Each structure stands twice: as C-alpha cells, then as structure tokens.
Amino acid sequence: MIRFSLTCDQAHDFDAWFSSGADFDRQAEAGFVSCPHCGSSVVSKRLMAPSVATARSREAHQQLAMDVQRGEVIAKLRDMVKTIKENAEDVGERFPEEARKIHYGEADQRGLIGKASPEEARALIDEGIEIAPLPVLPDDVN
C-alpha cells in the first residue's frame, strides 16, 4: 500500500492509501476518489518526499529485533539456570573439594553448584574435572 498526499480543485489537502500509482490513476479517472472536505472528484497527487529508510531507522528496527531476540535468549538461560539449581546440591565454598571427591570416586555422583575462585576453577579443569560457570543474567545483580 502507498499513501498519497492529495489535493482537490478547491485546495483541500488530504491523504489516501492505494495499492499502486496505477490504482490511484484508475480510481481517479473513474471518479471514485473524492475530497473528504468538499466532495470534489477533481483530485490530483501532491508533490511528496519519498519514504527512505535511513541508517538511523534501520538501526532502530535492528535494535528492536535484537532486543526481542535477546529477551528470548535471556528467558531460556534463566530457565536453564533455574533447572540446574533445582536439581543440584549447593555446596557453597566447598565446591572444589566436593567436585574432586565425586571425580575421584570418593563421593556419590550428583550435581553440584557452588563457588570457586578463578585459580581453583583452573586447577579443577587441569585435573580433568568438568565444570562450567552459571551465567550471571541481567537483573541477577540488582
């Protein structure tokens, strides 16, 4: 659909929507286009600036799309973290010790969450113990 700025022979300005320029021409010739102010069917198109997508408008549309996608990803991550926390034992600061016990068969296999310093985490990984940090999501730090 195309919006045309129109004017009648009585100098009334108005807008109307048409499927194409040819559609406007056909309807105007048949007398189907009339001024909403005075009813005149002598109507012509006014000079219009084309609607051009600027870099700024493209950026705004892209940002909106990214915000929607970002929200969906964050919601999925939030669900994942919730499931992990519901199905794991929180051992707090004892995480490195408990992870080693499980890895070396000194404790039963189970899901763990807890805290480890960067050095402790590197040491666990170097020992072949599989660990992964839980993501910190927006609103989790407020």
From TrEMBL:
Source organism: Xaviernesmea rhizosphaerae
Protein name per UniProt: DUF1178 family protein
Pfam families listed in its UniProt record: DUF1178
Top-level taxon: Bacteria
Family annotation (InterPro entries): DUF1178 (IPR009562)
